[in-house]
Amino acid sequence: MAVEVRIPTILRPYTAGAKAVEGTGATLDDLIADLESRHPGLRDRLVENDQLRRFVNVYLNDEDVRFLGGLTAAVAEGDNVTILPAVAGGAC
Questions:
Q1: Is 17 helix (H, G, I), strand (E, B) or coil?
Q2: CA end-to-end distance (rounded Å), the chain
Q3: In what order do the strands lie in the sheet with 80-85?
Q4: Domain spanning 3-85: which CATH class is it, in words?
Q5: Strands 80-85 and 20-23
Q6: Which residues pair with residue 84 across a beta bridge?
Q7: Would you give the DSSP letter of residue 24?
């Protein structure tokens, strides 16, 4: 099962600069494990204590995975996963 994963600029050093990579797995956790096997260090930036990091937003086919079961969300061939770091700050 190939799943396209869009990588934000901040994480591209882990993917040799690739904007998107492909991975496989039945769940989001499996997919992240597969990506980690080819792009070491990526999992640590996405997962902490067996949960998605608080300031990392992950979307599966434009749906927030936190509403789809988090790391247990099912993924299928042809799905698209987008990783977006949360952005905060600014001036009032």
A1: coil
A2: 46
A3: 20-23, 3-6, 80-85, 56-60, 63-64
A4: alpha beta
A5: unpaired
A6: 57
A7: -
Q: How many helices (H) and strands (E) does the chain have?
A: 2, 7
Amino acid code (one letter) for 89: G
CB half-sphere exposure, 4, CA atoms < 13 A:
9
For 15-51, how does the pLDDT look when each residue is reduced to its tens digit (9 = 90+)?
999 999 999 999 999 999 999 999 999 999 999 999 9
Tens-digit pLDDT profile for residues 49-66: 999 998 999 999 999 999
Q: For the chain, which residues make up each domain, given as ranges? A: 3-85
Q: Are strands 80-85 and 56-60 parallel, antiparallel or unpaired?
A: antiparallel
Please tell me the pTM assigned to this model: 0.90
Helix (H) or strand (E) holding 29: helix 28-38
Is 68 within 8 Å of 24 (Cβ atoms)?
A: no
| The residue count for the chain | 92
Query: Residue 82 is which amino acid?
Result: T
